Amino acid sequence: MAYDKSDELAINTIRVLAADAVAKSNSGHPGAPMGMAPVAHVLWKNFMKFNPKNPKWLNRDRFVLSNGHGCMLQYALLHLFGYNLSMDDLKSFRTIDSKTPGHPESHDTDGIEVTTGPLGQGICNAVGLAMAQAHTAAVFNKDGFKLVDNYTYCFLGDGCLMEGVSSEASSLAGHLQLGNLICIYDDNHISIDGDTNCAFTEDVVKRYESYGWHVVIVDNGDSDLEAIDKAIKECQAVTDKPSIIKLKTTIGFGSKQQGTHGVHGAPLKADDIEQLKEKFGFNPKESFAVPQEVYDMYGKHSSDGAAQEEEWNKLLAAYKEKYPAEHADLTRRLSGKLPEGWEKNLPVYTPADPAIASRKLSETVLGKIEAVVPELVGGSADLTGSNLTRWKSAVDFQPPSTGLGDYSGRYIRYGVREHGMGAIMNGLAAYGTILPYGGTFLNFVSYAAGAVRLSALSQERVIWVATHDSIGLGEDGPTHQPIETLAHFRALPNCMVWRPADGNETSGSYYVALTSNHTPSIIALSRQNLPQLEGSSIEKAAKGGYVLHEVEGADITLVSTGSEVCICVDAAKELQEKHGLKVRIVSMPCFEVFDLQSKEYRLSVLPDGIPSLSVEVMSTMGWERYTHEQFGINRFGASGPYKDVYKKFEFTPEGIAKRAIATVDFWKDVPNIRSPINRAFQQMI
Ligand SMILES: Cc1ncc(C[n+]2csc(CCOP(=O)(O)OP(=O)(O)O)c2C)c(N)n1
Ligand SMILES: *[C@@H]1O[C@H](CO)[C@@H](O)[C@H](O)[C@H]1NC(C)=O
Ligand SMILES: *[C@@H]1O[C@H](CO)[C@@H](O)[C@H](O)[C@H]1NC(C)=O
Ligand SMILES: *[C@@H]1O[C@H](CO)[C@@H](O)[C@H](O)[C@H]1NC(C)=O
Ligand SMILES: CC(=O)N[C@H]1CO[C@H](CO)[C@@H](O)[C@@H]1O
Ligand SMILES: [Mg+2]
């Protein structure tokens, strides 16, 4: 590809636009967009396949800006190539309710594949997207029908490489031989503190070579467009390894402060912008100016993309003729609907069924639904055996050359990489054809908190199979026993935290998790056996909280979750028999879903006039919203056989009864007890 003045003009247009938008909002990061404009231009104009008129076209190339602070680069590209992002949208950069928020958010803006900004996440999302692409190709492509091909591209900066999570995902990507993944590292030697030599002196080339990546160095990313072009071509030709281009650039190229941290995250001064525009041949008096020639050049590429999609649609139509079942499956998946009647496969239990650990109940659910929900792609962070996340006939997702599986496989061996797994699952979910779940101990979901937060913010349906959910794991002790974990993730907006108490509730948790297309779920599951509770059902669990045991003229409501509900049932018997107290029992497997029910329903579960006590072997934080008194564990746990640990903390029928009596005594003189559900105003959700 030959490059000339018109390419330079387009590149400088991007640079000037970034400087103008950051100046107008008086906040933002001009440096990375100005430094990466050349590679962005070469990649988007000459390599990337997309149709701005249909940003969801399945076989588009995916683009991830892992250094999300540089989002004015991405916004400028989206605008110039004709996505639904107007010049006014660019002018409202970083203002309330704009389509150009401070960091790119996938659900706000067409053409943004994943939400980035927290450094390191984006490159992991890109690994997930590339895995999804490889998987979807392996499942749906047929001889003569290459429905899915092409690439995932990712830009990243020094910050992304410094963050450990990038190592987790990059190591796995190398193992998985993801030849469709091409990353471009903005090697500008600058981060916020200044020259990276103050903290980041590792040999990135050797690091990525050791991961099994193909590495290319481009020495002049500021103006050697031919070299950039050649490097991308070279990476495309390497099909059995992911690639990374170490591209030397000058941050803030064109600014008087170029090459310094001064241009990283502050607007350029007015005189600096003036000289920049003069230098690049723009009118210094004009802002947000785009030469028609640039729109035309990029518009041409976009119409080529639209034509490619047309061609592809013809291919898809022919595919439909020849492979109607596969076609129906693919289009259904893209619509976000689960197969008709899939939920009939969710197991139900009777009170006569034996006590079973909920991690085991979860394995049964997965085994029953995997065949009818083919988009389920599972995995575990090296805890497959104890997590029970892998159904019996599962094939591993592996490069065929390893002899360990193939890319059509639906079970991912993430290795001991919880954070990487979480971030990769966000990429898998964002691709559009996959419903990812991943297993680890509940305590270690916290390792992945950075990724879980982004699942919630960017509305990705990602499911955590979080086993060993409490002190009930026993001997492994306080290092492994979650205390604060539920409170933490319950506090996270748009994240469902489930703690089912038996088989019906486990099925109910999966039912809601799978059908909530825009919400991640953490399903906390026990290591120890749990009895089937008389009165549970999938439908009741799906309300988030329900009355398991009702009694007329009750003295107290016990509210509990998971493995403590059955102990409350025994405590209720003891309270009735020994103390003549009438006890209602509420099971509350999911706060977030309960909160979504009508106030009338919530008050029927937690009515006025009766004191309530929550019982959960975790931090009590958060329970004040539902109960008058709380019995929990606000310290670290203890190492020992689980029954001994429960005894130590008095989570026994007697221990619960003692606190129930104290609750009844304390509240008996209080007139008109109000349910905590009754509040002065509704929370904003
Ligand atoms: C997880 C995380 N920690 C900290 C930040 C704040 N932050 C934003 S940009 C940046 C420096 C990034 O340096 P680099 O990737 O080299 O970007 P450049 O300055 O080259 O644009 C930091 C620390 C962040 N966005 N995410
Ligand atoms: C473009 O975005 C606006 C909102 O900013 C929306 O109202 C409009 O329908 C979108 N147009 C298309 C073609 O999607
Ligand atoms: C990817 O897309 C390009 C066109 O942009 C095409 O030439 C190429 O064959 C496609 N597939 C692969 C695997 O590169
Ligand atoms: C589970 O739900 C089914 C159907 O709703 C019900 O018949 C059964 O009794 C429930 N099991 C238990 C243990 O309550
Ligand atoms: C389905 C599956 O892989 N189950 C395994 C779960 O782990 C136990 C050991 O803890 C194995 O025996 C099962 O085969
Ligand atoms: Mg940098």
TrEMBL record:
GO annotation, biological process: pentose-phosphate shunt
Protein residues bound to thiamine diphosphate: H69, G117, P118, L119, G159, N188, H264, F444
Keyword Magnesium in record: yes
Entry cofactors: Co(2+); Mg(2+); Ca(2+); Mn(2+)
Residues with site note (Important for catalytic activity): H29, H264
EC numbers for this chain: 2.2.1.1
Active site: E418 (proton donor)
Transmembrane residue ranges: none
Record's catalysed reaction(s): D-sedoheptulose 7-phosphate + D-glyceraldehyde 3-phosphate = aldehydo-D-ribose 5-phosphate + D-xylulose 5-phosphate
A GO CC term attached to the entry: nucleus
Annotated positions binding Mg(2+): D158, N188, I190
Position of the signal peptide: none
UniProt GO MF annotations: metal ion binding; transketolase activity
Keyword entries, A-Z: Calcium, Magnesium, Metal-binding, Thiamine pyrophosphate, Transferase
Cofactor note: Binds 1 Mg(2+) ion per subunit. Can also utilize other divalent metal cations, such as Ca(2+), Mn(2+) and Co(2+). Binds 1 thiamine pyrophosphate per subunit. During the reaction, the substrate forms a covalent intermediate with the cofactor.
Keyword Transmembrane: no
Binding partners and assembly: Homodimer.
Protein name, UniProt field: Transketolase
The species this protein was found in: Sarocladium strictum (Black bundle disease fungus)
